[in-house]
Give the backbone structure.
Amino acid sequence: MSVIISVEKLTKKFKNLIAVNQISFEVNEGEIFGFLGPNGAGKTTTINMICTLLSPTSGKAVLNGHDVTKERNQVRQCIGLVFQDPSLDVWLTAKENLEFHAMIYNIKSKTAKKRIDQILEIVELKDRKNDLVLSFSGGMKRRLEIARGLIHYPKVLFLDEPTLGLDPQTRNRVWEYIRNLQERENTTIFLTTHYMDEAENCDRISIIDMGKIIAIDTPENLKKKVMGDIITVETTNNKNLSKEIENKYGKSVFLYDNKIQFEVDDSERFIPQFIRESKEDILSISARKPTLDDVFLSLTGRKIRDESANSMGRMRTHIKMRRGHR
Amino acid sequence: MIRDLKGIYIIWLRDIKRFFRDKPRLISGIARPSLYLFILGSGLSSAFGMFGGREGDWYIDFIYPGILGMIVLFTSLFSSFSIVWDREFGFLKEILVAPISRTSIAVGKALSGSTLSLFQGIIMLFFAPLLRIQLNFFMIIKICLLILLTSFALTSLGILIASRMKSMQGFQMIMNFLVMPMFFLSGAMFPLKDLPKWLEYLVSINPLSYSIDAIRYVMLEDKTFLVNPLYMNILVISIFAVVMISAAILVFNLTD
Ligand SMILES: Nc1ncnc2c1ncn2[C@@H]1O[C@H](COP(=O)(O)OP(=O)(O)OP(=O)(O)O)[C@@H](O)[C@H]1O
Ligand SMILES: [Mg+2]
């Protein structure tokens, strides 16, 4: 596998705030690489630097062999970008926005027409294509924005929180299309998200927090970092029970939502013994396999907000099924 | 090279499309020239008529090219507002990250601003017969070329400023600060004779004074008001245009 993006000690300072702090990583050609982190972690800032929209304070980034500060035009030839923030021209129609994009990316008009029709179908905007974007709802604008990023086939496609605010069906279709693109064109996908479940679609994930990368690995390996199962307990006196767990079992616990959470190796044997020996009244107890959220929690002691785990969960099964058919 | 020309065309086309789509802007674009002309022209000429005891007609002849210059000045400088607007609404990123050269973006913007100025200028020219100003075909062509040259230069200046501006308010403020002195010190409203030395200096560094001087001469075919020889006027505006578009291109290339 060849490396398509390599980043070395990349740093961005805004006045006295260090948004991105000496990060280094590599992305392989054809993989789906995810940037996972909470709000303000520095995901967008990193993308902007790699995409030549922001000059780094220090450090180096090379994309497809081109230095992003010295060969900006060559870098721009190789990339496509779906922005996190709105970036449509609302005084143009949906179709005109896409045509503008196709023209500016030098796609032959016949090919462009075909792709525009196809992508409008996928994001379900076909019957609105001749309306001014001004008249679109937020979700429709977002769909158009994604559609636009997908009509030229770049070597590297950057998706900054691509499916934010989309309904589950559209998410499925968009992901299906992205997967397809990746397989057919060997496109490298670089995406940022703070949805854990979306991150689990990635080949590799880099967890970023406060401008620093704290882990890079496959979702499976990351989850292995959390030792066994996750136990969540609720009692009338969480403080006392926390102390008890820490002293007796030597586990470090996290408290949130009025619940205690900690890791054990083997939950099936642990739970009965735990309930028997606990001095506090246990109101509820549950065990589950670790998710990336737990990885983040165990690495930083904090949780990433995860608003739509359910819809994303459905999406994942859908994609897994599709992959299984091949 | 072909790519650059295509890039220029894409940028240009979008701006033109947007202008004709934005109805209030289009209407005010048509209404403003007429309004200025009739309010300023008739009001001031009767005032001049009163004081000078002469017919006010010469003043119409004098001010008509001036108002044409004013329209060109306003339209050109403010057309670069689209850059600030695009930055505010995110579309600038879409353009900046695309594989077209920054040079073609700057030139495309300068050309779309010039086209819109020319459009407004032509609307103004329709009023000429009403004011008993005789224009023949060749005069119109010459005037249009002068308008294009001037507005290309002024739009480039606007782009230069806009590419450094982060907020809409900031842009408006700087522009108003720039437009008024440029207008009043251009010989648009009154003949530039017997001015104090410092004012004369300001007039001489104002590119618009050369344009209006040239347009007035071409339009009236009369040397009464002419300050500089025509070739010198054209030369000065051309130099200004080249300097401004080069600066705009440079700044655009350095923009993140
Ligand atoms: N132009 C800017 N000027 C000053 N500070 C900035 C600027 N852009 C970003 N920042 C700061 O840099 C930090 C990282 O921002 P960034 O947008 O990269 O976060 P993010 O990981 O994309 O977050 P989110 O999930 O909310 O999109 C934040 O603290 C932000 O306030
Ligand atoms: Mg972001």
Summary: Chain B has one domain: 2-253.
